Amino acid sequence: MDVVVTSTPNALVRRKSCFRRLRDDGFLRDFILAYKTLGVVFGGLVTSPLYVYPSMSLHSPTEEDYLGIYSIMFWTLTIIGVVKYACIALNADYDGEGGTFALYSLLCRNINISTLTSCVSSTATSSHSNHPMSINTKGRLGNLLEKSTTLRRMLFFIAIFGVCMLIGDGILTPAISVLSAMDGLRGPFKSVSKTTVEVLSIVVLLALFLLQRFGTSRVSFLFSPIMGAWTLTTPIIGMYSLLQHYPSIFKAVSPHYIVHFFWRNKSKGWELLGGTVLCITGVEATFADLGHFNKRSIQMAFLLAIYPSLIITYAGQTAYLIKHPNDHYDGFYKFIPQPVYWPMFVIATSAAIVASQSLISATFSVIKQSMHLDCFPRVKLVHTSQSKEGEVYSPEANYILMILCMLAILGFGDGRDIGNAFGVVVILVMFITTILLTLVMIVIWRAPLILVMLYFVVFFILEGVYVSAVLTKIPEGGWFPFVISIILAFIVFAWYYGRQKKLDCEVKEKLSLDNLRDLLSSLEIQKVPGLCIFYSKIQDGFTPLLRHHLRSIRSLHEVTIFTTFRYLLVPKVNPCNKIIIKKLGIHGLYGCTIQYGFADSFNLEGDDYVSQVINILEDHIRQNCDGHSPDTVNEEILQLESAKEMGVIHVHGKTRFHISKKTTAPWISFLLEFYEFLHRNCRSALPVNGIPTEQVIDIGMVYNV
Length: 705
What we know:
Potassium transporter. The chain crosses the membrane at residues 31-54, 66-87, 154-176, 196-214, 221-243, 272-290, 302-322, 342-367, 397-415, 421-445, 452-472, 478-498. Its main location: membrane. This is Potassium transporter. This protein is an alpha/beta fold. The protein is built from 25 helices and nine strands. Strands 1, 4, 5, 6, 7, 8 and 9 form a seven-stranded mixed beta sheet that branches. The chain has a two-stranded antiparallel ribbon with strand order 2-3. Helix 22 (606-623) packs antiparallel against helix 23. 44% of the residues are buried. Mean pLDDT is 80; it is low at 1-9 and 121-136.
């Protein structure tokens, strides 16, 4: 007798109800996002098996040495990757944004420690953090940071140095990833020289950098399948390898193997930490790219795919090396079975390209954020996606990265030396994150002191040991990211100091409203038909450029809108707060403040931008008529429309310093001269924001220093 099992209506209802709960809970959405995250966030991390073992200087390694190394990598990935980033750092988001800038801005928003007088850290125009422990009380440490100028400057320098090291990561990740992947050609073809591998790597990177201008979106549909294939195939091969060569490899999870490793190798074991640190390459991206994906999707991708894939892959590599101890110089390709060698070579090369792409894109985003905070010379930024604000491309930055990346390959050649440089970047960025996150836990979260100390002591010691180890690699290639970071930090500091000095001069010589009335009455000012948007850096008052303009030209447009860009230390500004309009008390003169955060995309597109300002201004006039008759209000609105139709002119000041060698200290003189060099060679502010050049009038002025 056949038995037929059918689904009852109640079972179907239960299955549909379960699916609906998953959908409503956002699980399916987060699962899809987690899959996409593989190709964007974890590029540098998932390709680390390519270059971890080759970066180590091993001499006659034994079975116990490999077990100790695997134990170190297992616990490093677990403690730093899982505990620090997946469980703690991802909760320190700033309105959905992550990374060094987000942590620094989070501190600036909650306590008045901003050293950027052109930026605002007020909470008035931003929403508060959604963290359940976030409160507004400052505490002793917060008050100390507010009062101490030295501590504020140190904190600013730490944040900037972390950003500079991340840009260095964007140089080294493409170099080491592609070079390590292409080195697989030397296995089957013994005649392939190291020089050939370098040339082929440069060709691949050249093509990658030249394709950046098309944007990530056009090729991103390939990223997740490539990384999905990588995270699936490498642990399968790892499992095969460990079963084939050393099935008991997971006994190395016991920490006593780490103790025995350092007991036997002593200082040599400590030096090898400069190579094992590369197992967490790219884990900082899980936090830095928080703005592109939500927290749960990143956690799912890391905990369900990346972490187990890396643990099993490293286990397979270690098992193979225990049986073949002298193959560590090519630890990845050697442990791949011969029948699947070429498919894995293709997957590895593709994964290296994706890893390079993700770090290059992250570098563009960091440069964009730095420019928004007025901490970096202006370069051209092109938005390559209509739907994703974070996708930007900078031609100047792209070609500079390309040249430096190629120089790194040609200069070092050997992947071990690049690995030494890479290790310096990796651990120092994480060390800076630990410091900033500790301050967030104390000042903002107000976490119990015992938990803060537990976090700080564990990660300060762990990462501090790694830092001490990688610093020994400075003569062997580690100097490269330091030199790059110091140069970038000097550029940032010189630009910041010059901008601050210029702003101080403007504030000192600014015009008040009464000064402007007196000036207009004392000079025979002619009213010119049309609309003038006069740009200024001063929030309260008028730029001294206006005095210079009125005395020289003796004319003023019928409608003049004094516009100030206001960079807020928040990721994004509410759209209704982006453009703020006010009347200035003089007929035809208005004030406009344009606000945006470091993760905002605010592009001034000519007529659309002017129309937006005019529309908001008209609404402001209607809502604040102050007892005026409707005819008066309509007349003022008609004047605005008429002025716009007559033509729009954007007046922008170009100020420079006249530096007196007699009264200015030599180091200040050098900084200001370098700033003037940067200012002359960077892009003008208005064309960067999309203002048509034919509508721009520049006014020159000199400040004596």
